[in-house]
Amino acid sequence: MYQQHFGLSAEPFSIAPDPHFLYHSERHQEALAHLVQGLQGSGGFILLTGEVGTGKTTVSRALLEQLPDSTEIAFILNPMLNEDELLATLCDEWGIRYQKGRATRKVLTDKISQFLLDAHQQDRQCVVLIDEAQHLKPQVLEQLRLLTNLETTKSKLLRVILIGQPELQTLLKRQELRQLAQRITARYHLLPLTNYDTERYIAYRCQMAGANRPLFTQPAAMNAHKLTGGVPRLLNLLCDRALLVAYADGQMQVDKAHVKRAAHELGQFDEPHQKANQRPRWPWLLLPLAAMAIAAVIRWWPATEAEVSASERTYDYHNAQLLASAWQLPKPPRDKAFCDWVTNYQLACLRTHSVSVAQLQNINYPALLLSDGQAGTVLASMEPVDTQAWSGEVIGLYQRPDIRYQRGSADVGELTEWVKQQLARYLSDSQQRLDARTQLQALQRQAGLPVTGELNPLTLAWLSARYYESGPRLQEVN
After folding, report:
1. Fewer CB in 10 Å around end: N or C, the chain?
2. Where are the alpha helices (DSSP H) in 338-396?
3. H-type helices in 41-151, by residue range?
4. Strand 347-352 relative to strand 393-399: parallel, antiparallel, unpaired?
5. Looking at residue 419, which CATH number applies to its domain?
6. Where is the AAA+ ATPase domain (predicted)?
């Protein structure tokens, strides 16, 4: 209705997962890179999770467009299958002939195995991509794992991409699926858009639809971000209606008032209400540090169950909401331990007392500084901070390195390899020939951190902050 009015050749905010309209935010680029890297590796399973509407399906469509013609894709949109239906669907997707109604599970499995072997001999890669995978039954996932058992000495003959909501990560932690979980070699949790990316996202989609000028004012874009939390699907719904509202007003540009009216008409967006005396407007709140001192050079896990429980008693639900908001996570549930809940997002809960403001600034993550267990000073920029009321305690979250792990334990070999790779980025060739403790000491001196020779919380945070491009950072002082 409004396309001609705004000079558009297409609908800029259709909710269809059209790769042509995929705005490559930093997070979407990382998600796509993880999928591509996973397909190039030797593993069997690749995991992409995210809240409803964050763009998982669109990223998967973009991946499909990048795959070479030699790829045999089986795309499963309906995960509500049993084991036999899964095998039959794979045969249908790959054009494998079988007698419907008569084929047993063994017959279907044998046919698929032969197909995979033939494809490998012809240098063709076989990929199964399952959307809404959180609905898969454990038995079906186990059947998929059995199919990935077929392998050469160098790689699997079948790769499986599981795409779903955060509940998928919870499903994969079940005891009967532990073997499958250990085969996940690449995983990524897609978060909503940041403030900056929301503005770029809106402008990009308008441009791709034929706009030759900005159709949304900056205040309008920022208000859209506040109302939607940066979730692309919600942004599409709201911005489409805002264009219609502006068109009805005879205006050539969407302003903040148009966005507010659109939200009211749709009836599913809450106005942001944040009184100064109730909740401070903190742009970022977090420093990812570990929850316990790490005595060994290589040791991994933020806290024991007892320590997590103790830390959760220290800060209240309001602080939990602030931390979730800093990472643009949904509102945390009250009926589940916060530190357990954030593991669904490849994050972990952590806290420390052994840190100074200068060291926090070297790490370049914002921090929530506590006073007697309550919210105190917020380190959000490089500016000096009044630490008079600060007890020295920091709480927050951190993004774990993308390695296989189990709760309470870790694949030490994989962590060791990850740390070695990170040290190689910052140390000279001669330094890399030193023992692990001396290498860490050299890095700590270079980074302005306490020189302990151990992979302590500060050192781990410094490495993680530079390994992951996404995530909050301290604001520079002009």
Report:
1. C
2. 338-341, 357-363
3. 56-66, 83-94, 105-121, 138-147
4. antiparallel
5. 3.90.70
6. 42-197
**Burial readout 327-340 (b: 16 or more C-beta within 10 A, e: otherwise):** bbbeebeeeebbbe
If asked whether residues 328 and 367 sit together in one domain, one would say yes
Q: Render 281-317 in DSSP notation, one character per residue.
A: --S-------SS---SSS---S--HHHHHHHHHHS-H
214 lies in the same domain as 180: no
Whichever domain contains 202, its CATH number is 1.10.8.60
- The per-residue pLDDT string of the chain (478 residues; one tens digit each, 9 = 90 and over) reads 789 999 999 999 988 877 778 787 878 888 888 888 888 876 689 999 988 888 888 888 888 888 888 999 999 988 889 999 999 999 999 999 998 878 899 999 999 999 999 999 999 999 999 999 999 999 999 999 999 888 877 778 899 999 998 888 888 888 888 888 888 888 888 888 888 889 999 999 999 999 989 999 999 999 999 899 889 999 999 999 999 999 999 999 999 999 999 999 998 775 543 333 333 333 333 333 222 222 334 443 333 333 334 344 445 677 777 777 776 777 788 877 877 887 777 677 767 776 777 787 887 777 777 776 565 666 667 777 777 777 777 777 777 776 544 334 444 556 777 888 888 888 888 888 888 888 998 898 888 887 888 887 778 878 878 887 666 677 765 5
Q: Please indicate, yes or no, whether residues 355 and 448 belong to a single structural domain of this protein.
A: yes
163 and 210 share one domain: no
Which two three-digit tokens encode residue 315? 């800060």
**What distances in angstroms separate CA 410 from CA 8, 300, 403, 416, one per listed residue?**
53, 6, 9, 11
Of 266, 281, 300, which residue sits at a domain end?
Answer: 266
Name the domain count of the chain. Answer: 3
- Cα separation, 264 vs 244, in Å, equals 13
Q: Is the same domain home to 147 and 202? A: no
* Cα angle value 58/59/63 (rounded, 5°): 115
Q: Quick one: which of 110, 119, 87, 113 has its CA closest to 100?
A: 87
* Residue 243, amino acid: L
Is 151 domain-assigned? yes
- On whether both 392 and 421 belong to a single domain, the answer is yes
Q: CA-CA distance, 144 to 461, in Å (whole number)?
A: 36
Q: Are residues 140 and 249 in the same domain?
A: no
Rounded Cα distance between 260 and 243, Å, is 12
218 and 162 in a common domain: no
Q: Give the domain extent around 262.
A: 1-18+194-266
SS3 assignment, position 203: helix
The Cα diameter of the chain in Å comes to 77
Neighbours of 265 (CB within 10 A): 14
In the three-class reduction of DSSP (H, G, I as helix; E, B as strand; rest coil), residue 87 is classed as helix
